[in-house]
């Protein structure tokens, strides 16, 4: 302790380090003495440019002005993800961030929709979702009447700089340097200090490991162990490149499957993020680079960058007096844009369970239980995209289609197939709507619906569905084009 304050040392900057520093200093700055050490010579992965809606809640917690954030990070708005070639080559579906239709206490909207399809009075499932229809029309607006649910595409490097400025204003001290040695208490094994190449020693009570996949503290020092999930998620390599835009930015991310994985397209205000994710067993780096370069539109702004990864998580996110965040805690491929979100939940969890009176095992266990549960639920949602496919055109897709999956996911898929139920577990990130859209999009269609919906007269059901679709269309008619809204929002008109 330093003058009654807990000394927190954050190892590593980048998105993870500065999210942790900004949140902790804003919420508990008067109780903490925070030092962040990073080296300008060590690059960051920094491809996590797409986000999900809970980011806005986190920003409110930090008192961040959204317009300032959008201007500072070259951001655009995101209403969901369009998936191409996942169920079958040539087919598309959309995972939107919105609520589809209306539901009752007894049953979900999908049951009314299934009955409507049977009677020929229902449109496409997405016709009843504002975010879905707005995204495909390239529209976006914010007003007091609209309840649109959205996230962002952003420049991760600019975002880290934006947060650094806020964190330093709240008293966080940044130290430039490389870590040469990590010192531990010989009895407890807890980390006592970080020794830098310059000879400077950073002493702390609590250490946050944001050193990326190498996990300098959590793994190389504390040897925490890693649980691999490559048998369920076989992609192990990514290649990233940036290009100039050739069209107005879409308010959604594109995820386009290929014979050995998928590629992304993320539009920012002044550039586009592109990348390939693939299985090294089914595709070479050179083949992936060629495919990526032949598929991108617009002049390339960067050289292709290869990133190797191992899908899975540390066996403990919190070990002794060290907490791993970001890539140091584990990796799930960016298919559903969860990486930045998981940094935010990690630091929020730490703030909720902060060990004021010293580290107690019960606090550590609770933190680890929550982290494990979060990782596994998000993992299962990502596995769903690979398992529920009709593709058998390549060894990669045949493997995914035939692989054994975790019991919890199998149960969810069976329940949806048999009865159109997609139960949401308490505290789960992906809502019922998300599971429903992806299952339907990937070809998992319920074989029955709740008998209660059959009690509604056909005319009543038609009016019910029609009124929802009309309300969606009325809202969209009042919305701006996405590009025009961004210009006004950033005062560039």
What can you tell me about this protein's structure?
By secondary structure, the chain is an alpha+beta fold. The protein has 3 domains: 6-76 and 153-228 and 311-377, FAD/NAD(P)-binding domain; 99-126 and 406-487, no CATH class; 237-308, no CATH class. The protein has 14 helices and 23 strands. It has a 7-stranded mixed sheet with strand order 5-4-15-16-17-14-18. It has a 6-stranded mixed sheet with strand order 8-2-1-12-21-20. Strands 9-10-11 form a 3-stranded antiparallel sheet, with no helix packed on it. Strand 15 and strand 16 form a beta hairpin. The longest helix has 27 residues, at 361-387. The protein is globular and about 75 Å long.
How many discrete structural domains?
3
Q: What structural category do the secondary elements indicate?
A: alpha+beta
Q: Could you say which overall geometry the principal axes of the C-alpha atoms support? A: globular
How many strand units? 23
Helical segment count: 14
Proportion of residues in helical segments: 25-40%
Report the C-alpha radius of gyration, rounded.
23 Å
**So, CATH architecture of the largest domain?**
3-Layer(bba) Sandwich
- The CATH superfamily of the largest domain bears the name FAD/NAD(P)-binding domain
Strand order of the largest sheet: 5-4-15-16-17-14-18
**Distance between the first and last residues' Cα:** 52 Å
The proportion of residues in beta strands is: 15-25%
- Average the pLDDT over all residues and give the rounded result: 94
Q: In CATH, what is the class of the largest domain?
A: Alpha Beta
Low-confidence stretches: none
Major sheet attributes: 7 strands, mixed
What is the CATH T-level topology of the largest domain? FAD/NAD(P)-binding domain
């Amino acid at each position: 302790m330093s003058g009654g304050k807990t000394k927190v040392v954050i190892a590593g900057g980048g998105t993870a380090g500065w999210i942790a520093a900004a949140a902790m200093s804003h919420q508990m700055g008067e109780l903490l003495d925070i030092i962040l050490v990073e080296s300008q010579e060590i690059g960051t992965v920094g491809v996590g440019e797409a986000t999900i809606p809970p980011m806005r809640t986190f920003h409110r917690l930090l008192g961040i002005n959204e317009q300032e954030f959008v201007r500072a990070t070259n951001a655009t708005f995101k209403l969901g993800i369009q998936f191409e070639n996942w169920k079958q080559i040539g087919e598309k579906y959309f995972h939107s961030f919105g609520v589809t239709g209306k539901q009752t206490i007894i049953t979900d909207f999908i049951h009314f929709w299934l009955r409507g399809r049977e009677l020929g009075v229902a449109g496409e499932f997405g016709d009843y979702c504002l975010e879905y229809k707005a995204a495909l029309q390239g529209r976006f607006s914010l007003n007091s009447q609209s309840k649109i649910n959205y996230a962002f595409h952003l420049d991760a490097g600019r975002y880290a700089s934006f947060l650094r400025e806020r964190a330093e204003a709240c008293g966080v001290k940044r130290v430039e340097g490389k870590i040469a040695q990590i010192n531990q208490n010989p009895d407890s094994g807890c980390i006592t200090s970080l020794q830098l190449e310059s000879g400077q020693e950073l002493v702390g009570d609590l250490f946050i490991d944001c050193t990326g996949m190498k996990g300098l503290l959590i793994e190389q020092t504390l040897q925490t162990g890693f649980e691999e999930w490559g048998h369920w998620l076989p992609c192990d390599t990514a290649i990233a490149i940036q290009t100039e835009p050739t069209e107005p930015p879409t308010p959604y991310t594109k995820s386009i499957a290929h014979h050995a994985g998928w590629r992304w397209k993320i539009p920012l205000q002044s550039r586009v993020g592109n990348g390939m994710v693939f299985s090294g067993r089914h595709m070479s780096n050179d083949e992936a680079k060629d495919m990526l370069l032949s598929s991108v539109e617009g002049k390339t702004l960067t050289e292709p960058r290869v990133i190797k990864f191992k899908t899975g998580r540390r066996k403990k996110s919190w070990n002794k007096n060290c907490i791993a965040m970001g890539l140091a805690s584990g990796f799930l491929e960016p298919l559903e844009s969860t990486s930045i979100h998981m940094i935010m939940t990690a630091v929020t969890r730490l703030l909720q369970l902060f060990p004021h009176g010293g580290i107690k095992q019960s606090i550590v266990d609770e933190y680890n239980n929550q982290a494990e549960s979060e990782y596994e639920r998000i993992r299962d949602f990502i596995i769903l995209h690979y398992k529920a496919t009709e593709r058998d055109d390549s060894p990669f897709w045949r493997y995914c289609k035939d692989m054994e999956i975790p019991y919890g996911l199998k149960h969810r898929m069976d329940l949806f197939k048999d009865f159109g139920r997609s139960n949401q577990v308490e505290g789960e990130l992906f809502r019922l709507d998300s599971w429903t859209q992806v299952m339907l999009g990937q070809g998992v269609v319920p074989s029955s619906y709740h008998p209660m919906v059959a009690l509604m007269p056909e005319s009543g059901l038609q009016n019910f569905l029609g009124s929802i679709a009309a309300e969606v269309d009325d809202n969209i008619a009042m919305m701006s084009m996405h590009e025009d809204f961004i210009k006004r929002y950033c005062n560039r008109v």
